[in-house]
Amino acid sequence: MQKKTVQIANHLVGDDQPAFIIGEIGINHNGSLDITRNLISVAKNAGCNAVKFQKRTVDIVYTAEELAKPRENPFGNTNGDLKRGLEFGLDQYKEIDEYCREIEILWFASAWDEPSVDFIDQFPVPCYKIASASLTDDNLIKHTRGKGKPIILSTGMSTYEEIDHAVEILGKDDLILMHTCSAYPSRYNELNLKQIPALRARYGVPVGYSGHETGIASSSAAVAMGACAIERHITLDRAMWGSDQAASLEPSGLSRLIRDIRLIEESFGTGEKFVQEREIPVMQKLRRVGLKK
């Protein structure tokens, strides 16, 4: 099978390349720029290649009925208060962009509606993410593809037929698929990591893994199974308020995960069989001589 890679800024993502590691900040910032900067720093210090946010136009993504539902939260008493409180505007994203440039880490976002795509397009993001929830939104997919940048498409809660249709719209150039389970947090028996090589074989594009489980072993295993990118939600503390915190990695867990991924990659080798240089003295010491006939 032909090797596939996608260029994201100065990173090649795909076959025979180091895994592209994404720290998903999402809405774990809880509306605070201070928390956001801390999370960006955590991602940078752990070795992430990029951080990712989520951008929504609240009144487009949610119905009036949904926004009016009672929901106690730090911003008010309704679901609408919460959704609006978690959305950053232009000034906040300018600060995010400036801080990411300052500490030299990439950032991008999953945009959940067309105006949000246009909003993010004000910034020099290297790619766009399309969330699993948006995989069947043809208009959003077309609008995002129209920006002319690489697309990372998550495939959670989707059938092959739905993925086929989305890939047909997007085309396979500059496309990375992400296998995922959209349950938060995911159980280990729901992860189905064998889908990583299956998606790669079906679509012939690079395939990564977006994990929503609580541990790190399965994300490391995903790399061993061929995942070209790993995306994990990150948090300062799982006990913090917020719906995504429980499915997120704290700083120590993120650092351990990236350490393990890089060790796994180092262990891959070339696939060729040969005697390692450090094996030679062991061979000379332990093998009996004169046994060949």
What is this structure's SSE topology?
Elements: E1 5-8, E2 11-14, E3 20-26, H1 33-46, E4 50-55, H2 58-61, H3 64-68, E5 70-73, E6 76-78, H4 79-85, H5 90-103, E7 106-111, H6 114-120, E8 128-130, H7 138-145, E9 151-154, H8 160-170, E10 175-180, H9 195-203, E11 207-211, H10 217-224, E12 229-233, H11 251-267, H12 280-286
Helix pairs in contact: 1-5, 1-11, 10-11
The largest sheet is: 8 strands, parallel
The count of DSSP E runs of length 2 or more, i.e. the number of strands, is 12
Topology as a string of helices (H) and strands (E): EEEHEHHEEHHEHEHEHEHEHEHH
Secondary-structure class: alpha/beta
Number of domains: 1
Percentage of helical residues? 25-40%
**3D shape:** globular
User: On the 0-100 scale, what is the average pLDDT?
Assistant: 96
The CATH H-level superfamily is Aldolase class I
The CATH architecture classification is Alpha-Beta Barrel
Our measurement of the CA-to-CA distance between the termini, rounded to an integer number of angstroms, reads: 42 Å
Q: Counting H and I runs of at least 4 residues, what is the number of helices? A: 12
Rg for CA atoms: 21 Å
Uncertain segments of ≥5 residues (pLDDT<50)?
A: none
